[in-house]
Amino acid sequence: MEITMKKKVYFNHDGGVDDLISLFLLLQMENVELTGVSVIPADCYLEPAMSASRKIIDRFGKGNIAVAASNSRGQNPFPKDWRMHAFYVDALPILNESGKVVTPVV
C-alpha cells in the first residue's frame, strides 16, 4: 500500500471565472489539502467573488476551509463588464440549492 502525502495549498485568487473554476478543481484533487482561500478584487467585485467562493466550498469542499477578503485595490481595475462575471457564478442554481452559506469568512 502506497501512502502519499497531500500537498497543502493556500489559494489566493482574483475572483475571475477561471479562478473560481480552479477553486472547484482544487477541491476535487485527492492529492491536495486546501488550507484556505483569499480573494483579491482584481478581476472582480469583492462581494460576489467572496460569496461564490464560499458557496463553491460549501457545495464541493471536504472540510473546514475559511475565506479571507483582501483590501488591496489595483491601480487600473479591469473593466466593469469583466468584473461582473463573479455575479454570474454566484447566481448559479447548483451553488444556491441549500439556501445558506456556512463557510466562514476570516
UniProtKB/TrEMBL annotation:
<dbReference type="Pfam" id="PF01156">
    <property type="entry name" value="IU_nuc_hydro"/>
</dbReference>
<dbReference type="InterPro" id="IPR001910">
    <property type="entry name" value="Inosine/uridine_hydrolase_dom"/>
</dbReference>
<dbReference type="InterPro" id="IPR036452">
    <property type="entry name" value="Ribo_hydro-like"/>
</dbReference>
<protein>
    <submittedName>
        <fullName>ABC transporter substrate-binding protein</fullName>
    </submittedName>
</protein>
<feature type="domain" description="Inosine/uridine-preferring nucleoside hydrolase">
    <location>
        <begin position="9"/>
        <end position="77"/>
    </location>
</feature>
<dbReference type="GO" id="GO:0016799">
    <property type="term" value="F:hydrolase activity, hydrolyzing N-glycosyl compounds"/>
</dbReference>
